[in-house]
Amino acid sequence: MKKKFLAATLSAAMVLSLGVSAVPVMAEDDGEPYKAALLLNGTLGDKSFYDSANAGLTALQEELGEDKFTFKVEQMGATAADEAKWEPTIYDYCDDGSYDVIICGTFQMLAALTNAANDYPDQKFIYFDEMFDYSAGGEENVYNVMYKQNEVSYLVGAMAALMTTDESLEMVDPSNAIIGFLGGMENSVIKDFLVGYIQGAQSINPDIQVALAYVGNFYDSAAGKDMALTQYQNGADVGFNVAGSAGLGQIEAAADAGRYAFGVDSDQAALLPDYAANIPTSAIKNVGNSLIRAIKMDMEGELPYGTLEYLGFAEGGVELVEDAHYEEVVPEEIRTQIADLKEQITNGDITVQSALGENAMSEDDIQALIESVQVG
Which residues form the signal peptide (predicted)? Predict the structure, then answer.
C-alpha cells in the first residue's frame, strides 16, 4: 500500500479526548491523497451509528483537504435481501486496488471481512464495533477498534433509574420503577450495552425492573415503535434505544406516549429537534472520532494492524451528551450524581462488568443479571 505524507497537528479536542500525539510526523510522499472506502451494511440517515462514521471522515477531509485525504461511502443496505451483496462489494473494492484502507463494521460483516482479509493480504482494513477473530487470519492487515459502551450505558441506566421515580418530572410515573431497553439484535455488543445499563440502574435502585425487547434487525423503525409503545403502556416511562434506525421508532413512541427515550451513537436530541423534549441525552459511541484517530495513525505509519483496541471514557471512545439541552431536561441533582459516577468510571473507582473481552461475563451470569430485573 502507498504511504502518505502527513504533517498533522491534531485538534485540541482529539488530543484531549483520544490521547493522540500532536507531533507532526514525516513519511514518504508519493503525491497522491490517502484514499479510504467506508462500506456500510446499512444506509446513511440513521441519525446514529453510520452517520457518525460518515461525519468523522467528512470532518477529516475538511481538515486535511482533498489533496491529502479523500473517501467514498458505499451504502450496501441492511435488509435480508441486501446481505448477498455485502461480500461481493468488499471484493470489488479490494480488486480496485486504489484504496489505502477499507472500513467496515458490525458483527454482520465479520465473515465477509475475514474472507477478504485472507484473500487480499496487501489490502488494509479497519473493522469497528465487533471483535475480529485473528485466529482466522488478518494479523497483518486488519485493525480492530471496539468501544466500551458498557461504561456509557452504566450512566444511562443510573439516570433512567433516577428519573423514573423523580416527582419533579412530568413525563414519568414516580409510583413505579420500570425502565425500558430496545435492542436491535441480540449480539455481544448489544448485550454489552444492556449489562452496563442494568448495572447502572441497579446501582441506584437494586429493585429496578427493565422491560426488554429486540426488534430483530436495525432498520425496522415501525416494529421498534410498536415494541416501545408496549413497554410504555406497561409502565416503563424511560427507555433506551440501541437499535440503529429501528431505534428511531422508540423515540417516536416516547413522543406519542409522553415519555422519555435516551438516544444512542449520535446526539439524537440535536438531530431530531421535533422530539428533543423526549430525549434527555444520548449515549455516544464516538465512531467518527475513532476513525479519524485510526486514519491519522495509519498516515503516520503507526496504526497497529493485528491489534484490537477498546476505547472508553478514558480514551474518548464513548461519551454522554452534556449540553444546554441536557441541563434543561435533567434535574441538577441527577446531573450531579451522573457526573460523579462518570468520574469514578473514568478513574477506575467503578469497574463496569462487560459482555465483551478477556474478562467478559459468562453467558450464565449475563442471563442471571437480565432475569434479576425482568418485569413481572
Answer: 1-27
